[in-house]
Amino acid sequence: MTNETAPAYPGVSALVHKHLPKVPFTADKTLTDANITVEPAHLLELMQGLKERRELAFDYLRNMVGIDMQEEGLVCKYQLHSMKHRHSIQVTVHTPPGNPHIPSITGLYAAADWHEREAAEMLGLVFDGHPNLKNLLLDEDVRIHPLLKAHPLQKMEIAQGIEDRDPGFKF
Fold first, then answer.
1. What is the tens place of the pLDDT at every residue in 40-65?
2. Is the pLDDT of residue 165 over 70?
3. Whose CA is closest to 49, among 25, 73, 29, 70?
4. Could you give the domains of the chain?
5. Which three-class secondary structure string do you get for 119-169?
């Protein structure tokens, strides 16, 4: 057995580091994919490189989701796939509390349009440069963000017994 340490960027994240060396990010792994965490200021540069560099060719936005991390702020996660190379990656962007701004990626991935609208509506993320951030699911005049953990109806939902069911996660 050797006493070697793991490379700083294993697998797909090493490929990203090699072809986008000027984009600052950290890398780790989820259960299924490499995960790259980037600051909002560097998101567009990273996403453009992931899509346009032929060695990476992440041409398919599989999914995008916003998450309320409460005191830590809001997080946005993008799952990308390369049809050409058959590799996948997750990109994570943290926003500081009180400043939920992330650049829109609709100019790179048309599918981001409704994902960003949903995350804006449900959590209050602000996608700077989005062409049409109007509500997707709620009426236009509704200005609440129902998926925020501090949402006023959360306590009522818990009182109605949701916590008695096993949702697979802890409230």
1. 999 999 999 999 999 999 999 999 99
2. no
3. 25
4. 11-164 (3.30.460.80)
5. HHHHHCCEEECCCCCCCCCCCCCCCCCCCCCCCCCHHHHHHCCHHHCCCCC
